[in-house]
Write a structure and sequence with these properties.
The protein is an alpha+beta fold. The chain is built from seven helices and eight strands, in the order ααααββαβββαβββα. Strand 4 and strand 5 form a beta hairpin.
């Protein structure tokens, strides 16, 4: 009979390490047809088209959030303390399909806070947060499966869906699950989603929750991102962002959203994250910017 330590080791063995994440990224990049920045306008138009699809409730380019656990150990993981014994991520549903034209590997996760008494306010908040996140993930996953099956019936070209997850640098205060989502159909596209929970209060976090009410955090963070963009482009000719371009001013990056995707890294710094096509050509992939502590400390 396997011990808890054995099960822990199995769990760690199947988590995505940095090399596995790199391999996943390489696979995504190989499927992309937009390899250069020479036709920026064409890339930008494709971006708007994909954004529109991504906001619809049931479309072919909606992606599902997946955990980094397998079905074979999901049940066993229920007995393993994870993240300070507050939450754990298990596989709730599997959906796989493979043929010459269509490939899907979908594992629907569940962030589990079961086992808590739910008597304290923080535990009540945690249950509410996980329930909300799980409901969102369930709807997205059901939509993508429905659309995948419909497209498969109608033989609408080729489909390839790859979805993985990565637990970001988790501190004593915050837990973030990054959802790496890729869909290839002719060209490839990637979206990442970030779910952050305050482990002290149990509440789901948005970027604005890190600052006091009324504070202008958007402007200084946006200005710092612009500085980083300019520095990167100056250093490397292959790096390109939509910034300071007089020919396409309407496409230039202006500022982050109030509830921009983010996570807290192991240094305690905010990392702002953008999906493909939001601030750069699709060939740049998903990009992120670590915000220096001095920028955040100056917010008031």
């Amino acid at each position: 009979m396997k011990t808890v330590e054995d099960l822990k080791q199995e769990y760690h063995n199947i988590k995505m390490n940095e090399e596995q994440v790199k391999q996943l990224k390489d696979r995504m990049n190989q499927a992309k047809t937009d390899k250069t920045n020479s036709n920026v306008k064409q890339s930008r138009n494709r971006t708007y088209w994909q954004r529109g699809l991504a906001t619809a409730a049931a479309v072919a380019l909606v992606f599902v959030a997946l955990p980094n656990t397998s079905a074979s150990v999901a049940k066993a993981m229920g007995e393993i303390p994870v993240l300070g014994n507050l939450v754990k991520v298990v596989t709730f549903r599997n959906y796989q399909y493979q043929s010459e034209r269509n490939n899907a590997d979908i594992e629907v996760p569940k962030i589990d806070s079961e086992g808590k008494t739910g008597t304290s306010q923080s535990e009540k908040n945690l249950k509410k947060s996980t329930k909300e996140i799980n409901r969102e993930i369930s709807k997205i996953s059901n939509d993508i499966i429905k659309e995948f099956e419909e497209s498969k019936k109608q033989e609408e070209g080729f489909q390839d869906v790859v979805v993985k997850s990565q637990v970001m640098a988790t501190t004593q205060d915050y837990f973030t699950l990054k959802l790496i989502c890729y869909q290839g159909s002719g060209s490839g596209a990637e979206w990442d989603y970030y779910y952050t929970i305050d482990l002290q209060s149990g509440k789901r976090m948005q970027l604005g929750d890190l600052f006091k009410a009324g504070a202008d955090y958007v402007t200084p963070i946006s200005d710092n991102i612009k500085e980083q963009m300019r520095a990167q482009m100056k250093k490397d000719a292959n790096v390109s962002y939509w910034l300071d371009d007089s020919e396409v001013e309407e496409w230039n990056f202006d500022k982050i959203d109030e509830n921009q995707n983010f996570y807290i890294n192991d240094k305690g710094n905010i990392v702002i994250c953008f999906n493909e096509g939001e601030v750069a050509p699709m060939s740049m992939g998903c990009v992120s910017f670590e915000i220096p502590a001095k920028v955040v400390e100056a917010v008031h």
